Amino acid sequence: MLDIRSLRKVYSKKSVDEKIALDNINLQVRKGEFVTVIGSNGSGKSTLFNCITGVEQPDEGQIVLGTADITKLAEHKRAKYIGRVFQDPLRGTAFNMTVEENLSLALARGQIRGLGQGIRKRDITMFRERLSLLDLDLENRLKVKMRLLSGGQRQAITLLMATIVKPELLLLDEHTAALDPSTASKVMKLTASIVNRDQISTIMITHNIKDALEYGTRTLMLSSGNLVLDLKGEDRKRTTVEQLLVKFGYHYC
Ligand SMILES: Nc1ncnc2c1ncn2[C@@H]1O[C@H](COP(=O)(O)OP(=O)(O)O)[C@@H](O)[C@H]1O
Ligand SMILES: [Mg+2]
């Protein structure tokens, strides 16, 4: 489904600040697979996402999504197929627009229909249903501006927006890291239920090793731009947080 071959990204090439952010990444993700990614600060996790979404151009290598080679495809053209949620709850939504306007824009992704034609009644009913599943008391706040909501509420809505039209690939970049522990856990459970319900191919970056092992079916570790661990199946089931910390703890110093 996603096939990354020999991906390399170097920043500030041939200067004193030269930095190999991705060295030689090879990664195949199957349709419907839910992959978690850990790795210390600066190990290349966000750069990997930036190359997949087209924010950055890799120096070498290929990225194939489905049957399409998207390596050089413009960022806005990929946005139709790829949903991304960032750590910062302010990034994903239009701040001064209402909850229903934001959801309508997300629903219109990849279609000609925009806000101009108004929001349809049956869409509103669907928004209400989806929002009530979040269990964050949002189903009766459709006309509230996003900026008036809490970080957790915004992040849950961002997640809904990224998945309301099923993306071919969902990228989550530490999307619960800025939330308080109880809200983070709620948003994490919500993530798993949406991803499992809709069988969305997902890559989730997290600094929480427990979440990385608990959610999804496969765990990768990045270190200095290289994939140094690819855990799945029985090996993964048997692996504990403590073992990963002992084995790779020094990466977190
Ligand atoms: N736009 C950029 N310009 C220069 N260096 C960058 C840029 N983005 C990231 N880097 C560097 O590339 C490395 C990987 O960064 P990043 O992918 O953000 O790591 P992570 O998300 O794992 O914390 C880091 O050393 C970082 O400083
Ligand atoms: Mg990052």
TrEMBL record:
Domain named ABC transporter: residues: 2-249
Entry keywords, A to Z: ATP-binding, Cell membrane, Membrane, Nucleotide-binding, Transport
Pfam families: ABC_tran
Domain of life per record: Bacteria
Record's bilayer topology term: Peripheral membrane protein
GO-annotated cellular components: plasma membrane
SMART domains membership: AAA
GO molecular function: ATP binding; ATP hydrolysis activity
InterPro entries xrefs: AAA+_ATPase, ABC_transporter-like_ATP-bd, ABC_transporter-like_CS, ABC_transporter_ATP-bind, P-loop_NTPase
SUPFAM superfamilies on file: P-loop containing nucleoside triphosphate hydrolases (SSF52540)
Stored PROSITE patterns: ABC_TRANSPORTER_1, ABC_TRANSPORTER_2
Protein localization: Cell membrane
Name this polypeptide is given: ABC transporter related protein
Organism per entry: Paenibacillus curdlanolyticus YK9
